[in-house]
Amino acid sequence: MLAEGSLILLGGFALLLVLGAPLAVALGVTGMVVILREGLGIMSVPTNVYAGIAKYPLLALPVFILAGMMFERAGVAERLVRFVSVCVGRRPGGPAIVAVLVCLFLGGISGSGPADAAAVAMVMIPGMAAAGYPREFSAALIAAAGSTAILIPPSLAFIVYNILVPSASIPALFAAGLVPGLLAGLALLIPVLWLSIREGWGRDQPAATAGFWQTFREAIWGLLAPVIILGGLRIGAFTPTEAAVVAAFYGLFVGLVVYRTLTPRKVYEVLVESAEISAVVMIIIALASVFAHAGSTLGAFDAFARLLLGFTANESAMLAMIMVMLLVAGMLLDAISIFLVFLPILLPIMKTFGWDPVWFGVLLTMNMAIGQFTPPMAVNLMVTSRIAGVSIESTVRWVIWMVAAMLLAMAAVAVFPGLATWLPRQLGY
């Protein structure tokens, strides 16, 4: 029963993905087939669908998606770019440094890698091209820097991780992701500066047309967003779910009243688009619950975990094996999907070795971040390449540099867990 059911569940899921079935379909179909075949109770399907999404913390997910899109359409990225450009000044690699820093900051607003990358790419790529940067390099860099959005709080990936691993609270995960996220951004600056100096990129930059204080006044409303969100969480003014609502209304206020870049028509479009994205995510999570119920009831996940543990009892070797496996998966699936598929298998391994669930979540998320700009899936790279007007294939030579930098940052967090766990402990989470 266990062997046959596990083969149908895991093998059928993999087969459907290879055949091109949507992830939600692959999860739902294989889960229901196993439930029916093994007599696990067909009425467990609607129960698990409801239970999968009827979770209070999960309410933050669609609202943070809405908030990120509000800030994107409000023109916050453009004003942040002007302000950071003035701060960085005219120096070799200046525009690339600006792109990385703005991506890091926007990550503290949107929590979404593709939204972050799209907003910065639309503003930065034309200017970087004028400063001598190849469009292929610019697309690769912004895609990589945008991936830090799922590490910098508020992170949509951490919200999903919390649903699957309740022992890692959302405030603790948000705090834990801050230092590794900044570390990943700083790591990207190493190849950026070296390549810029070697190739002579960024030397011919137009002089700033506005001074520090003018650009600061324009950007202050965007600069305040993460302060309000994270500050409110820290002092206990609101929960993560309530923080998402505050962020959404703040973005609406900035776009309608302050910058006046949002019109009723644009607000309606944002509401529709965010609802569509949220619906897709919720459907995947709901059907993943059916898949998880079938696998856990059958014991398939525990059996697979024991199989992995059979390869090695060495903690470091096991961690390295998991990272390689997830790195490959990140090239094919998005971060949320990987969490839903792999976490039921990885949690028994985490408990076996006694790994800190917060640190482990950050490490997994850093791996997912790399997958966001690594072909063939590379959702961030798809967005930036389209904006830059280049093919994904042409960016690979530059993507390799970014992957190497991010792997260096991830290795640092793996070797020194305190990089992720220090801040949550200091804040009392």
Describe this protein's structure:
The mean pLDDT is 84. It contains 20 helices and no strands. It has helices at 2-18, 23-37, 44-53, 60-74, 76-88, 94-110, 113-130, 135-146, 156-164, 170-199, 212-235, 240-258, 264-298, 300-311, 315-330, 335-353, 357-371, 379-388, 396-415, 418-426. With 429 residues, it is mostly helical.
Comma- or semicolon-separated keywords:
globular; mainly alpha; 20 helices; 429 residues; single chain
Summarize the entry for a quick read.
This protein has 429 residues and is mainly alpha-helical. Helix content is 78%, strand content 0%.
Classify the helix fraction into a percent range. Answer: over 70%
Name the beta content range.
under 5%
Shape label: globular
Rg, rounded, reads 22 Å
Specify the number of helices: 20
Mean pLDDT: 84
Structural class: mainly alpha
Number of domains: 1
Helices and strands, in order, run as HHHHHHHHHHHHHHHHHHHH
In terms of quaternary structure, the protein is single chain
DSSP strand tally? 0
Report on the biggest sheet: none
pLDDT under 50 segments (min length 5)?
none
Calculate the terminal CA-CA distance, rounded to whole Å. 43 Å
